[in-house]
Known about the structure:
Blueprint: H1 2-33, E1 35-48, E2 52-59, H2 65-69, E3 77-84, E4 90-95, E5 106-112, E6 118-120, E7 124-126, H3 132-135, E8 140-145, E9 151-157
Antiparallel strand pairs: 1-2, 1-8, 2-7, 3-4, 3-5, 5-6, 8-9
Amino acid sequence: xxxxxxxxxILSSFLVFSVLNYEIYQKExxxxxxxxxxxxxxxxxSSSFMxxxxxxxxxxxxxxxEFQEKKIVEGMRGYVVIGTDQNKVAIFKRFYDGKKLSxxxxxxxxxxxxxxxxxxxxxxxxxQEGHEKFYTQAQYxxxxxxxxxxxxxxxxxxxxxxxxxxx
Length: 167
């Protein structure tokens, strides 16, 4: 019986580690091979006991008129379709309706909170305590999108589209 439990534990551990490693591989692949898109932000620096200092990110694509006119339901989640301009800055196109995207379109996940505001995921950016002075000039979130529609937030950029380095 102990041998069976030990075997189940080993197999379960292997499965968990395999899934975690695959997720890491996907993120690293997106980071290495993905297409850069800048999403305009307005931000506020906040702090919490557990997380320390961080930036709350409010993206310009959710300040679009269509978002303001959409019936807001707390807890609503979905996707918006974005395109990019000549500087690779995201432009709101429409709410995703399940139809096939064109080659220049990408999806962003959003959700609505009880404050009746829409938030793009991720909605915060963590940084080291004492480094907030570097990030106060942030104008854009720098994202990378892969061909499958996965995306990650790489960092923040200034008005000249330069990644902000805290060192």
